[in-house]
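Hi,

I'm pasting everything inline rather than attaching a file, because the server keeps stripping attachments. The sequence lines come first, and each chain or strand is labelled.
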Amino acid sequence: MQKSIKNIAFAGSGNVAWHLAQALKLQGFHISGIWSRDFSKAESLAKACNSVACAEVSGLCKGSDLIVIAAPDNAIGEIVSAIGNYEGLVVHTAGSVSLEVLKNSFEHSGVFYPLQTFSKEISVEINHVPFFIEASNRYDFETLMSVASKLSSKVYAADSNQRLLLHVAAVFAGNYSNLMYVIGNELLTNSNLPLEVLHPLISATANKAIVGNPLQTQTGPARRNDTVTIEKHLAALAALPEYAELYQLLANLISKKYK
Amino acid sequence: MQKSIKNIAFAGSGNVAWHLAQALKLQGFHISGIWSRDFSKAESLAKACNSVACAEVSGLCKGSDLIVIAAPDNAIGEIVSAIGNYEGLVVHTAGSVSLEVLKNSFEHSGVFYPLQTFSKEISVEINHVPFFIEASNRYDFETLMSVASKLSSKVYAADSNQRLLLHVAAVFAGNYSNLMYVIGNELLTNSNLPLEVLHPLISATANKAIVGNPLQTQTGPARRNDTVTIEKHLAALAALPEYAELYQLLANLISKKYK
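And the predicted assembly:
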């Protein structure tokens, strides 16, 4: 039987908590309390979603049906201990933390993982964000699927192993593609050109990967085995040996894929 | 004095020629002829921009004011020889080829480099594409700036050294970010999850880099020095040692930037 969730508390006030708590509030849930290591941050988020800041983690238990731990991975264990006995449902939002850390301490537990990059100052279309759900039993799973479905049209089941690989995939497609932009910008700065000249390329590359398949839309010197251009580029990177090494490694990976 | 350009011929019928010739035609230029190593491709492009296919490179000279060499880098030298004596302006569109290869053979030469990823089947908003211009003298430079300005609102001067670095920057921000999407997709396939779950992340990461500065919007385990998660990810990649090596290298680069 699916449990009815009305009151949701948050342990954490970082980027994920910031967006999730407000999105849940908008969908009619009551945010019953927010705890954060930094009390003033708990107060800011509480203000933004008509909630109250709690001085102690244990304060989240009273009057809540669900506690969402949206905190750094290495803080989850401590928060679990601080929650103590709790009869409601406890979830975390981490890609690379297994369900086990909650399962051993609570009767009802699960994972509520949104695959997106969150920054406080940038709004997110939450209904497009994929959510990945896991739970300690079938009933709690259905409860969490139902909560997630109110936020997003893209809700999936994923066990802890799938979620870990998903997180690695997200690091490549998100964090590491961003690093490629950072390096591109550095090279532009070195040649006295404005950063905005890369924007249409960044945007078109991302769009192509979404409309089509990036394996098919791959272009560039390595894709066409243009070793003369690759050599020129490596020479141009001579003063930046770390980038030259990276350029070569990535060129080799591409060449191997298409040979 | 700026030369008046009316008739433009193309040597090449690949992705760049395909988009440039049609965009120039739309702006009122006459595409006077198209040569390609593959005659049937020259015919297709000629059809698309009300032009004629030429069987020989030298056929491009007659009745043209400008010849655009939009061909693979290693074919440019041969095309230059095949053009022979020509009194008009000759440009190439390559990021990593210096102006010298044309300057030695023609009185009027230049470079007309569009910084974008082109695929025949995907339309391009040419007026947002940055163009980088170089020429053998001030008059030819002004002529090319004027032609480029009819296509795009973003036209810049760049000498051969700047253009080379620009091309390297584009390889990182375009080709290599695309490789990160490819790897992300592979990992999803391995864990039986649909590729579309990465799309909102890809799109949000690119948008953040355009609205803000990717150096500031970098997120992820390496950014927060989360070595526990990094170790979990490396363990998850144990069966894919090339990706594990790449993961570690990129994590190290990020850690160094923010320490």
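Chain B has ten helices and eight strands.

If the labels don't parse on your end, tell me and I'll reformat.
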